[in-house]
Amino acid sequence: MTKRMLKFVSTAQTPPEKRAADDRSDDFHEIYREYIADKAQEQSSRCSQCGVPFCQQHCPLGNNIPDWLMLTAEGRLEEAFEVSSGTNNMPEICGRICPQDRLCEGSCVIEQSGHGTVTIGAVEKYITDTAWDKGWVKPIIPPKERNQSVGVIGAGPGGLAAAEQMRRKGYKVTVYDRYDRAGGLLVYGIPGFKLEKYVVERRTKRLEESGVEFVLNCEIGKDLSFDDLRARHDTVLIATGVYKGRALTMPGSGADGVYPALEYLTASNRKSFGDTVEAFDNGQLNAEGKRVVVIGGGDTAMDCVRTAIRQGASSVTCLYRRNRENMPGSQREVTNAEEEGVVFEWLAAPKAIADNGGKVSSVKAVRMRLGLPDSSGRQAPEEVPGSEFDLEADMVIQALGFDPEDLPIKFDENALTVNRWGAVRINYSTMMTSIDGVFAVGDIVRGASLVVWAIKDGRDAAEKMHEYLQKKAAELAPVAAE
């Protein structure tokens, strides 16, 4: 039934049902259940249809959120899907993993008025999941085929978004990735309880059906040189992401049982595919029966603590140097973790790793307090004298963030310039690197960030690459005519 809008006063906010903690904490299935059609329409009808939609302004993609909420409320779901997918290459993925509490929903006007935000992410997920079920998501058929080609390095969200946009314009697109599956961190970084892997696989399969070629198990600079890649294509996009985990630099950090977050998460995700993972099968990267301490406060740390719970850890503790209000990760993820049994040690930082015969035995930590703001504007944590304490641990996971790999060395290309943090420099008006015809997007440019920003960058880069290739074709046309 069609619903009228502006029902936020008479209709209460009702998020999708969340599986109980004791039901979900021993499997890797998504924790939120699907909306039924009536509930999606009801919750969409709560939108106030603001003249200035702050939800849209605070979405990196500028999604037309009020429009597809209204269409959903009116039962015009296929139109809602067309509007939603018009600005987003992966709306059902963003609906699952975006930190809506910090973006669109956090800026919702009715949330600010005390009525509870519209459940934007859940409706976004419902729209596109329904579109897949109904067969509305079709392979891309470009209006015309072009004889120019694009090489994309990296099959993560930025690379996939750019590949889709360029294929829509009729270019030949080849995506190269070092791993055996496309998807980047969507596949090997984010656990299934947030994003089940079939959701990513159907996206990459659709691109294949659309004519995008994937070359997997191919590491640029090792299996294929950067020069050879450039020779194959008329333009190249670097969308490698950032995979080099920041490591602890303190006494004992080299002890057996201290692991990088991505190594731990990748092993777990590979097991979900049924892969043989020796480091997991021999118990090294398996948290079962272990006292686990995760150091960090971002979404990767939340992924690690919740994965450890599902693997059957005897205890899981998250150590973070700031307080809850200042942590960079999603507050929803913190709540989910707490429900599942994770213990948070706020305002606490590691000082050393103690070991017994080379095997980690505890984390020596110290209490912190927040002092004056630092150069970033955030209150800087400082140690509380005499507040040292020990946390017993059999496994310590470092979730301290990620840095770029040294691409000029990796690609053997000194002409590729980077900034002081190692991120690739681009001209932001063209999105081109220091090398003509080579563009870059996503985390390798902006540093570790959100999936939605990578998609935004991929879409923007596709427009710039199109302009570049059109200009290049126009320059060659008179020569061809002669």
TrEMBL record:
Segments forming domain Dihydroprymidine dehydrogenase: 25-135
InterPro entries: DPD_II, FAD/NAD-bd_sf, FAD/NAD-binding_dom, GltD-like, Helical_ferredxn
Keywords from the named record: 4Fe-4S, Iron, Iron-sulfur, Metal-binding, Oxidoreductase
Pfam families on file: Fer4_20, Pyr_redox_2
Region (Disordered): 1-25
Keyword Iron in annotation: yes
Keyword Metal-binding carried by entry: yes
Superkingdom field: Bacteria
Basic and acidic residues bias (residue ranges): 16-25
SUPFAM superfamilies noted in UniProt: alpha-helical ferredoxin (SSF46548), Nucleotide-binding domain (SSF51971)
Ranges where the FAD/NAD(P)-binding domain occurs: 150-458
UniProt name for this protein: NAD(P)-dependent oxidoreductase
